[in-house]
Amino acid sequence: MVSIEKILKERSIKNLLNFSIINIDKPSGPTSFGVDQIIKKALKLNKTSHFGTLDPMVTGVLPLALGRACKLMPYFIGKEKTYVGVMNIHNTIERSELEKEINKFIGKINQLPPKKSRVKRQIREREVYEFKILEQDKKNGKNFIFEAKVEAGTYIRKLIHDLGEKINGAHMLELRRTQASIFNEENSVDIYKFLEAVEEYEKGNEKPLRNILIPGEIIFKTLPVYQIKEKFLKTIYPGSPLRKEMLESIPKENKFLIFYKEDFIGVYEKTQEESMIARPRYILQPL
User: Fold this and answer.
1) 137 catalytic per annotation
2) Which of 25, 36, 55, 162 is the catalytic position?
3) Would you say residue 235 has pLDDT above 70?
4) Interior CA angle at 112 toward 145 and 137, to 5°?
């Protein structure tokens, strides 16, 4: 079992800054890229990368990879995301009727990305896992707080718009992302608290910043982990394929992770080649 707490305690802050993730609670206003640049500049890093873009006015969970952890991004961003928002219904409708219409959007849906999007405008299939009303505004009965758990790449504003076409109009007023992959708002950090932690770090107190960093080894929560035997470490770093005798146990899954104790080695995918188990998709070279 990989212990993130042990890694945080034993690894140097320099190494952590080169292979970690920070889960920022994005405020309303700046773009995701803008937040990315704030983190990059504050930590004086060559490379940072955010996991999944949020519109400027949308708040909430925005994980950012630091340094070599940027290569892990594809293994996080394809996961489900959860949003809480406020929508305005243009015409009066009973909550029970609204919920009936909402239920029709749960499951596989076809969605055309909005005109102002960074992807090609073509119909895409996405899955809505949950879509429900949490509360109706008592003062303005046309405003509803909703929660939606969706496949990555689903546009919530468009989801509300498409719902509106079934009920004579609806649009989104506010939106907050509460969960993205394994990251949620409970373990996110305010960007101003992050900057305060950086200031403390520059004064010689690394503890606040260390408490914010999430080691890249957190990837163990996304794929199965298998341990490599110590004597094969030098063999595996150049990119050699895996053989049965290299591992403590044989992987059952098609895609999996290789660790040596607490250290992440790489992402592997099974192969049908004779005498080989899998080939690497990404290897973290030792510093």
Assistant:
1) no
2) 55
3) yes
4) 10
